[in-house]
Amino acid sequence: MTPPSSSRTSNDLRVVVLAGGLSHERDVSVRSGRRVADALRSTGVDVVVHDVDADLVPTLQELRPDVVWPLLHGATGEDGSVREILELLRLPYVGTGPRSSRVAWNKEIAKGVVAAAGIATPDSVTLQQDLFRELGAGSVMDAIVDRIGVPLVVKPSRGGSALGVSIVDRPGDLARALVASYAYGDTALVERAIVGTEVAVSIVETEAGPTALPAVEIVTDGPYDYDARYNPGRSQYFAPARLDGDVTERVATAAVTAFRALGLRHLGRVDLIVDDDGVPHFLETNVAPGMTETSLFPQAVLASGTTLAGVYRDVVERAARTV
């Protein structure tokens, strides 16, 4: 744990940044937490960085921070569990509440909510590992291909950082993709792959309501997997995305609509793919976007012409006022 500063003034905010955890995305969380803490400190915020361990609750009870910022990726960090604890302790925190976090964390449920709000999303099916085995892998995979076709995207229905994600171009590769997905969870989401431009739209709440930052376009030399996300050189990013003006507006509107429909709060990121007709398709959302040096949220902030430190401070101040 990083010790609190001894030079706190009455005008300073005290923030505890939660980073680490035990998910597969621990390293990303640690890097995100470090960068956010440094940015906040540059604005005079008194920051403590803490892992999720047996000392966390006593530490929070002792410090009584003005705001807690959960920068935990993966399970517990994004499924609402830690946020439930923060609410039990009656501590303000950055981000979406527990119920909406659970909805957003489950990709198939989130897709249903967003589709009901009028946003396109690729046709898909979810498949539990036990059922997959009981019904017979071959017949189930044949039914999936017959209904949805190829190419397909296979990914854990709960998870982040593209862990366990595969692109299936041939029916014979579906079994291997499902096995890769089941390594990260017992339910796989099999989704029709949309050919188009992949974009990420970060959202920040302002006095005017949820506001879309410039979309970031992602170009990779293969699937946008964990390695492509966090190791420089595998991916190219264009911020703002290279979209026509009307498509840019359509993408921003779709992202804000998804943010509102899912009940997200303070900040978030909505991932979309834009097809050749300029229609944005919802893929998934993230209630705790990565904040590393290669992450999409910081790129969007910089593309908007503002500073990371200023935006992070504004987010913290808004969270401090949230009842």
Automatic annotation (TrEMBL):
GO function terms (MF aspect): ligase activity
Keyword annotations from UniProtKB, A to Z: ATP-binding, Cell shape, Cell wall biogenesis/degradation, Cytoplasm, Ligase, Nucleotide-binding, Peptidoglycan synthesis
Protein name: D-alanine--D-alanine ligase
Encoding gene per record: ddlA
Pfam families: Dala_Dala_lig_C, Dala_Dala_lig_N
InterPro entries assigned: ATP-grasp, ATP_grasp_subdomain_1, D_ala_D_ala, Dala_Dala_lig_C, Dala_Dala_lig_N, PreATP-grasp_dom_sf
Enzyme class of the recorded protein, top EC level: ligase
Family: Belongs to the D-alanine--D-alanine ligase family.
Transmembrane segments: none
Transport recorded as keyword: no
Compartment(s): Cytoplasm
Organism field: Luteimicrobium album
Pathway listed: Cell wall biogenesis; peptidoglycan biosynthesis
Reaction it catalyzes: 2 D-alanine + ATP = D-alanyl-D-alanine + ADP + phosphate + H(+)
EC number: 6.3.2.4
UniProt function note: Cell wall formation.
Domain ATP-grasp: 111-317
NCBIfam families: PRK01372.1
